[in-house]
């Protein structure tokens, strides 16, 4: 295996208003290296800077895993202070994903473990194949912990009882268990997975970008501050061209032509 293959990559492709990000290290089930985390951050910056992008799809290469955590070799020789720095670094990447300008979809085939679950969890929507498994089994495997911020994120989406079972019992629930909780937008077999994701993208592409952006920003703010002030977002939404277009389209009984402004 070459050095580049060992380090892995996050591939970026933009087409039809959709940014496709692929975690490409299949020999290691797409376990994240520092290089891959940095490339993820670079991809997110590209998305935010490109007004043509309306949706982002994140997926693991190889069809066996979304992301199977962080590469364990990077933890050799860690101290307590290294752990604090690592968790802060991961928090920053996950927060950047939460705050990217467009709606995000995680496509989970196989495993979303540890850091991979944190990434999938930070996406707005998740689609999984049957039997896909989600978890953070570190109480059984590594003996480390998650940051309060990532525990808060998991608790917000999965609920406290499920997170406790994941963390304390090292459970890895399957897609079929999580779907009834509303955690997954869809479960689709491999042969229809691409079509299922494409339908979700088409729906998002047909919706008002400003409304979706402001709503996501407000939800992110409310997750850390229940009294967060949303006046700036409300002002931006009601003052947008898209709002005026939406009102006109509704009254004229025609589809709205959203501009994202």
Automatic annotation (TrEMBL):
Keywords: Lyase. The keyword Lyase applies. Its EC number is 4.2.1.150. Gene3D superfamilies: 2-enoyl-CoA Hydratase, Chain A, domain 1, Lyase 2-enoyl-coa Hydratase, Chain A, domain 2. One of its GO terms (biological process) is fatty acid beta-oxidation. The keyword Signal does not apply. Belongs to the enoyl-CoA hydratase/isomerase family. PANTHER family: ENOYL-COA HYDRATASE, MITOCHONDRIAL, ENOYL-COA HYDRATASE-RELATED. It is an enzyme of class 4 (lyase). GO terms for molecular function: 3-hydroxyacyl-CoA dehydratase activity. The gene is crt_1. Pfam families: ECH_1. InterPro entries: ClpP/crotonase-like_dom_sf (IPR029045), Enoyl-CoA_hydra/iso (IPR001753), Enoyl-CoA_hydra_C (IPR014748). This is Short-chain-enoyl-CoA hydratase. It comes from Methylobacterium dankookense.
């Amino acid at each position: 295996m070459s050095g580049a293959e060992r380090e892995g990559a996050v591939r970026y492709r933009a087409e039809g208003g959709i940014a496709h990000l692929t975690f490409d290290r299949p020999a290691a089930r797409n376990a994240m290296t520092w290089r891959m985390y940095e490339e993820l951050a670079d991809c997110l910056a590209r998305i935010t800077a490109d007004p043509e992008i309306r949706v982002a799809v994140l997926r693991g290469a190889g069809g066996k895993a979304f992301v199977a955590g962080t590469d364990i070799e990077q933890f050799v020789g860690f101290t307590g202070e290294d752990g604090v720095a690592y968790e802060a670094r991961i928090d920053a990447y996950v927060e950047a994903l939460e705050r990217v300008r467009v709606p995000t979809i995680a496509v989970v085939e196989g495993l979303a473990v540890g850091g991979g679950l944190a990434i999938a969890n930070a996406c707005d929507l998740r689609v999984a194949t049957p039997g896909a498994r989600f978890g953070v089994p570190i109480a059984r495997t590594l003996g480390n912990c998650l940051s309060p911020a990532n525990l808060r994120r998991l608790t917000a989406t999965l609920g406290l009882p499920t997170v406790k079972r994941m963390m304390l019992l090292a459970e890895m629930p399957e897609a079929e268990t999580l779907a009834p909780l509303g955690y997954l937008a869809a479960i689709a077999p491999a042969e229809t997975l691409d079509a299922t994701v494409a339908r979700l993208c088409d729906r998002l592409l047909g919706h008002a970008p400003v409304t979706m952006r402001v709503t996501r920003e407000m939800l992110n703010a409310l997750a850390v501050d229940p009294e967060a002030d949303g006046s700036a977002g409300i002002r931006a939404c009601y003052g947008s061209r898209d709002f005026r277009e939406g009102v006109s389209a509704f009254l004229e009984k025609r589809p709205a032509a959203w501009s994202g402004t």
